[in-house]
Amino acid sequence: MTKPLDPAAVIAEFIDRVAPYNPQPDADPVAVLGVRTALGEDVFTLSDHVIRALCRAVESYRDPEDRGDCANCGGRHLDENLHCRDCGQLHGILGQVIADHVRRFAASPRPDPSQPASEIDSP
């Protein structure tokens, strides 16, 4: 079971990790950040060093579910197999291989089910 996140605790831990590297530890705070959740609320005063680190961390974050945009419909709901849940398009190498296979299969002659198997297999 996944441990629930406490946003205020996460921010406090981030500040604790970053603050020791502040080149101007005695400088006045430049930002105040308030966090209110069902777990309670906290207010943090942040130095320039910490707020810049927080901004860089937020800017560099990429959601693990972000697999890009659908080339067909522009949707942002590609599953782990690069299948668009919005339009059904497959993407990437897997999508190309499957699409090529489907095209080859669709273009190949179909055996007549009324013929015996021996006639189908003969050249």
Could you describe the 3D structure shown?
The protein has 123 residues and is an alpha+beta fold. It has two domains: 7-60, no CATH class; 65-109, no CATH class. 37% of the residues lie in helices and 11% in strands. The chain is built from four helices and two strands, in the order αββααα. The chain has helices at residues 7-18, 48-60, 92-107, 117-121; strands at residues 31-37, 40-46. The protein has a two-stranded antiparallel ribbon with strand order 1-2. Strand 1 and strand 2 form a beta hairpin. The longest helix is centred in the last third of the chain and has 16 residues, at 92-107. The chain is elongated, with a radius of gyration of 28 Å. The N and C termini lie far apart (60 Å). The mean pLDDT is 87. Residues 104-123 are annotated as: Disordered.
Quick structural gist:
The protein has 123 residues and is an alpha+beta fold. It contains 4 helices and 2 strands.
Give helix % range: 25-40%
**Rg:** 28 Å
For the record, the count of structural domains works out to: 2
Which blocks of ≥5 consecutive residues have pLDDT under 50?
none
Indicate the multimeric state. single chain
End-to-end Cα distance = 60 Å
Tally the beta strands. 2
User: How many individual helices?
Assistant: 4
* N to C succession of SSEs: HEEHHH
Strand % is 5-15%
Q: What coarse outline follows from CA principal-axis ratios? A: elongated
Mind summarizing the main beta sheet? 2 strands, antiparallel
Nearest-integer average pLDDT: 87
Structural class assignment: alpha+beta
Strand order of the largest sheet: 1-2
